[in-house]
Amino acid sequence: MSITETTKKPSVLFVCVHNAGRSQMAAAYLTSLSDGAIEVRSDGSAPADSVNPAAVAAMAEEGIDMSTEIPKVLTTDAVRESDVVITMGCGDSCPIFPGKRYEDWELEDPAGQGVDSVRPIRDDIKARIQTLIAELLAS
């Protein structure tokens, strides 16, 4: 086995309340833009029944299909297994483990908004993801 095969990929967990908009868009961008170099998870503290259709439409404009994604519930294991945990308005519901990198991204909630209002949120997330990829793959 080569060294590259045994090196663990960095892993990132995105958490928001409903796991229907911000965290789903962030996970989709990270999956797409990292070309598989980073393990990606996305969960919610109180998941919605479905992903926000405006978020799906906004990401489709970027050539990223989120139409089959399903909101998932946040588990302690998901946090434990992630190197970086990025919260997006879930407050104290995210468990804290020593040795993890935690960030809180303050982003407007796209819930109940149309695609015109979701685009700037999407673009902000994309810029943050590009910075995150550069940081994780440089170390």
Total domains: 1
Q: How would you describe the shape?
A: globular
Please tell me how large the radius of gyration is: 15 Å
What is the C-level CATH assignment?
Answer: Alpha Beta
Can you name the CATH architecture?
A: 3-Layer(aba) Sandwich
Helix content: 25-40%
Question: Structural class of the helix and strand makeup?
Answer: alpha/beta
Give the overall pLDDT as a whole number. Answer: 90
CATH topology name: Rossmann fold
* Uncertain ranges: 1-6
Largest sheet: 4 strands, parallel
As a percent range, the share of strand residues is 5-15%
Number of helices: 5
Distance between the termini: 22 Å
Helices and strands, in order, run as HEHEHHEEH
Structure report:
The protein has 139 residues and is α/β, with parallel strands linked by helices. The protein has one domain (3-138): Rossmann fold. Helix content is 38%, strand content 14%. It has five helices and four strands, in the order H-E-H-E-H-H-E-E-H. The protein has helices at residues 3-6, 22-33, 53-60, 76-80, 115-138, and strands at 11-16, 39-44, 84-87, 101-104. The protein has a four-stranded parallel beta sheet, with helices on one face. Helix 2 links the parallel strand 1 and strand 2. The chain is globular and about 40 Å long. Residues 1-6 have low confidence and may be disordered.
In short:
The chain has 139 residues and is an alpha/beta fold. It is built from 5 helices and 4 strands, in the order αβαβααββα.
Could you outline the blueprint of secondary structure elements for this entry?
Elements: H1 3-6, E1 11-16, H2 22-33, E2 39-44, H3 53-60, H4 76-80, E3 84-87, E4 101-104, H5 115-138
Parallel strand pairs: 1-2, 1-3, 3-4
